[in-house]
Design brief:
Blueprint lengths: L20 H21 L9 H12 L9 E2 H11 L5 H12 L9 E4 L17 E4 L1 H7 L9 E3 L6 E3 L8 H5 L1 E4 L4 E4 L4 H13 L5 H4 L13 E3 L1 H10 L1 E7 L1 E6 L5 E7 L6 H13 L6 E6 L8 E5 L5 H11 L3 E7 L1 E2 L7 E2 L2 H42 L1 H10 L3 H12 L3 H9 L7 H26 L1 H19 L6 E3 L16 E7 L3 E5 L14 E2 L9 E8 L3 E6 L3 E6 L13 E2 L12 E7 L9 E6 L3 E6 L11 E2 L9 E7 L4 E6 L3 E6 L13 E2 L9 E7 L7 E6 L3 E6 L13 E2 L10 E6 L6 E6 L3 E6 L13 E2 L9 E6 L1
Parallel strand pairs: 8-17
Antiparallel strand pairs: 1-3, 2-3, 4-5, 6-7, 8-9, 9-14, 10-11, 11-13, 12-13, 15-16, 18-19, 18-21, 19-24, 20-39, 22-23, 22-25, 23-28, 26-27, 26-29, 27-32, 30-31, 30-33, 31-36, 34-35, 34-37, 35-40, 38-39, 38-41
Helix pairs in contact: 2-3, 3-4, 7-12, 7-17, 12-15, 12-16, 12-17, 13-14, 14-15, 16-17
Length: 820
């Protein structure tokens, strides 16, 4: 049988206690965790610094490395911090110092660096023996008045000297520069802010202690990152400020530049905070290489000392907004910024804090600093006044003072005699004995008396400050206002009130007016109305299109960049896309072939176009279509919501029929159908029953043999006082009040709407005058365009030919108009 082994703990000269290992591990780990939380990872709310940062700044201040002083080797600063205050590795100290010098990491750098301190590409800083550093002006403000007993002190790691527990911090550094850190079981993430906004917020809070987060956000609307960018969703920011936790979407700044070759480039000039630029470029390149991102021709990093610039060059004909949205979705060009405003309110216990709580703690900290500084200044002023009073007493009896000193055996006896004979204190007696003979001069005596007078005044003011909390708050406000003049700078990060929930192509596309033109041969383009300057009626117009020989403009639409567009072909099919997906082009460009990005068969031709917003597909809105032969059909717009890429049937056409126009109608609307020979019929939309997509339609107007439909217009409720604009092929136009058109049943011959002659040419388009529109743009078959004020078009009766709005060149004619 084996002998049982016994383990005896050898005596150590002290008392030994047994302890459960689990309990010992728990206590030891908690002790370690609190040490990491308090002594390393989390910032103090009062000065916004972690211990290593505070020790570096204090060491530099103690070495005399002010913002206007000489730079010295970083290695000396690291050695000073290590040897006296921070008992950890030199790498940790130097890394913390480097970050405080990087203008892309800190909104307001605390260290001025000379040499290579790293880059936004993730490049490491040069070794500490090669770089040099000194304090920044912002850091000096964190240390201002530290010598006036304004902060608490504690022994350093070996108790050979003392270090500050926190700094006076006349600037709200925690929110100015933010903080990130990982402790044990917790982490902090506080974004940086603009000092000007913070100062205004603190001043408001000092005057209104009960201010809400919403009120404070009028002054502090959101974070302000050193790298700029755009943040979204004001509600998410308010929630994060209220609870201390949250997340907001952030995007870099990218613009689209158009090139002469009809291609585009995406230029990125700002990236989200803490994103590595080199990694971002590598990620984009990887997506292109893996064919997850098509349409990119070239990728260049053109950043230099002048600024930040990444160029994504696109292939010809590629919609730039689609590529940009894919970059937002698949790269860190968009990222979420997380709030976890965990910090140490008193340097001891971590707490998740709201914006108001952080500002309140900082405000109380400054009140304490001002009080301590005032008490220090008061004590020094009283000490000096005490000495000055003794000097004044001595100068008033100088002969007796001198006689007393001469009779004394030594300095100690002279001091005692002065105290005894002249009712002075030992301190005053010592000052008199140290007094120089030059003080006996009349001017010197006046200086002493004047200084005493000033000191007494100062003492009175300092005592008033200590008695009045309002005066202390006023001092804080005045100091912040002075610092605003020195350190305020414009906000770098733009704030968009709405959030980014989904990745849609129009997320960053402004909803702007646009004009869509389509030629007979299928060339389409999108232009802003500003491309056409306003002219007086009767002019020749501008070149509006680069028309190839044998081609002509056929379709026009005035719309906006967020709308949908339906293309109806001569075979009765319909195709759909977004307005902003149509390539934008200059006024004189020919545009892009529509078959290149819509699967329209090459043997089909687009005969009608309609645009509508997403909201139009809801409810009882219908699509009203009319053919050139006068057949009308009504189908619910909701049936066209999901148009296949290869198109769907919109209506059945008889042989020889061509779709002329399409408009949106609602119950209660009325319809006007106009013809090229100047007839028009007005009827209720309810006269046309709803039909399926494959139906053929019913008669709208009875046409003469040589006539055809020229326009389809919808009269909305309340529009009865408006006018119908009719435009003729040879440059004539007129307005006729709607009240002159009586309501009839559909299928009739209608009534006269314009006097058509050889001089005017046939009616080519009609539009109901929109009160929100001030001008029209008329296009000719050869590509001329003129922009005319609607008020310049004469209002006349139905049987008139109107006025000339454009002088037509020989062989040219107007083919359409749009209202803008």
């Amino acid at each position: 049988m084996k002998k049982k082994l016994e383990h005896n703990i050898p005596p150590s000269g002290g008392k030994t206690e047994r302890q459960e290992i689990t309990e010992e591990l728990r206590e030891s780990y908690l002790s370690y965790a609190m040490s990491v939380i308090v002594s390393r990872a989390l910032p103090d709310v009062r000065d916004g610094l972690k211990p290593v940062q505070r020790r570096i700044l204090w060491a530099m201040h103690d070495m005399g490395l002010g913002a206007t002083g000489k730079f010295i080797k970083s290695a000396r600063v690291v050695g000073e911090a290590l040897g006296k205050y921070h008992p950890h590795g030199d790498t940790a100290v130097y890394d913390a110092m480097v970050r405080m010098a990087q203008d892309f990491s800190l909104r307001y750098p605390l260290v001025q660096g000379q040499g290579n301190f790293g880059s936004v590409d993730g490049d490491s800083a040069a070794a500490q023996r090669y770089t040099e550093a000194r304090l920044s002006k912002v850091a000096e403000e964190l240390l201002t008045n530290i010598e006036k007993e304004t902060v608490d002190w504690k022994p350093n790691y070996d108790s050979t000297r003392e270090e500050p527990v926190f700094l006076p911090a006349s600037l709200p550094n925690l929110l100015m520069n933010g903080a990130t850190g990982i402790a044990v079981g917790m982490a902090t993430s506080i974004p940086p802010h603009n000092f000007l906004e913070l100062a205004d917020g603190i001043i408001h809070l000092s005057e209104n202690p009960d201010a809400s987060i919403s009120e404070l956000m009028k002054f502090v609307p959101g974070p302000d990152f050193p790298t700029g960018g755009i943040i979204y969703d004001k509600k998410a920011v308010e929630e994060a400020y209220s609870t201390g936790k949250g997340s907001i979407a952030m995007r870099g700044v990218a613009t689209i530049e158009e090139k002469k070759s009809d291609a585009f480039s995406i230029v990125i000039t700002e990236i989200p905070y803490m994103v590595n630029k080199a990694d971002l470029v590598t990620k984009i390149a990887g997506l292109v290489q893996d064919k997850r991102l098509d349409g990119i021709k070239d990728l260049r990093d053109e950043s230099d000392r002048e600024g930040f610039r990444i160029v994504v060059e696109l292939k010809s004909g590629v919609p730039p907004q689609k590529i940009l949205n894919k970059l937002y979705k698949t790269t860190e060009l968009q990222k979420n910024i997380h709030f976890n405003m965990l910090a140490l309110p008193d340097g001891l216990q971590p707490e998740i804090l709201s914006l108001k709580k952080i500002l309140s703690i900082y405000l109380e900290h400054r009140k304490l600093v001002i009080r301590r500084r005032t008490e220090f200044d008061l004590r020094k002023a009283e000490e000096r006044a005490h000495i000055l009073e003794g000097l004044v007493t001595a100068l008033g009896s100088i002969d007796k003072i001198i006689a007393t000193i001469k009779k004394s055996k030594d300095k100690e006896e002279a001091s005692k005699n002065l105290v005894k004979n002249f009712k002075l204190t030992p301190i005053q007696a010592g000052a008199i004995l140290e007094m120089r003979l030059q003080s006996l001069a009349a001017l010197e005596r006046e200086k002493i008396e004047e200084e005493l007078k000033e000191k007494k005044k100062l003492i009175s003011e300092l005592k008033l400050i200590l008695k009045s909390p309002k005066k202390i708050v006023k001092i804080i406000q005045d100091e912040l206002k002075g610092l605003k003049e020195r350190f305020s700078d414009p906000r770098r990060t733009k704030i968009v009130p709405t959030g980014v929930q989904e990745f849609k192509d129009e997320d960053l596309i402004p909803n702007e007016e646009a004009i869509i033109t389509l030629t007979q041969n299928g060339y389409i383009k999108r232009m802003p109305p500003t491309n056409f300057r306003a002219q007086k009626r009767g002019g020749k117009g501008l070149i509006g299109f680069d028309i190839k020989e044998g081609d002509a403009i056929e379709q026009f639409q005035a719309t906006d960049t967020h709308s949908n567009i339906l293309f109806f072909t001569d075979q009765g099919k319909v195709f759909q896309t977004k307005i902003h997906e149509i390539p934008s082009a200059t006024r004189t460009a020919k545009g892009k072939l529509i078959h290149n990005y819509l699967d329209i068969p090459s043997d089909e031709r687009v005969n009608a176009v309609i645009t509508y917003p997403d909201s139009a597909a809801e409810g009882k809105i219908s699509l009203l279509m009319v053919t050139k032969q006068g057949v009308v059909k009504k189908t619910l717009l909701s049936e066209f919501e999901n148009v296949r890429r290869t198109g769907i049937i919109a209506l059945s056409l008889k042989k020889g029929e061509i779709l002329r126009s399409a408009e949106l109608v609602e119950p209660g609307d009325e319809v006007i159908v106009s013809t090229s020979l100047g007839q028009a019929i007005r009827f209720k939309e309810s006269d046309v029953r709803p039909m399926g997509r494959t139906a053929a339609g019913v008669s709208a107007i009875k046409l003469k043999k040589s006539d055809m439909v020229a326009g389809l217009d919808i009269i909305k409720k309340g529009e009865k006082s408006r006018a119908l604009i009719a435009v003729m092929a040879k440059g004539f136009a007129k307005q006729t009040p709607l009240k002159e058109y009586k309501t009839q049943k559909r299928g009739g011959s209608g009534i006269r709407t314009a006097k058509v002659t050889d001089k005017t040419g046939p009616v080519i388009a009609t539009r109901i005058n929109d009160p929100e529109s001030e001008e029209i743009i008329a296009f000719s078959r050869k590509g001329q365009a003129i922009r005319v004020k609607i008020s310049d078009i004469r209002v006349t009766s139905r049987s008139t030919q109107g006025v000339r709005i454009m002088n037509m060149e020989k062989g040219d004619e107007l083919v359409g108009i749009v209202q803008i």
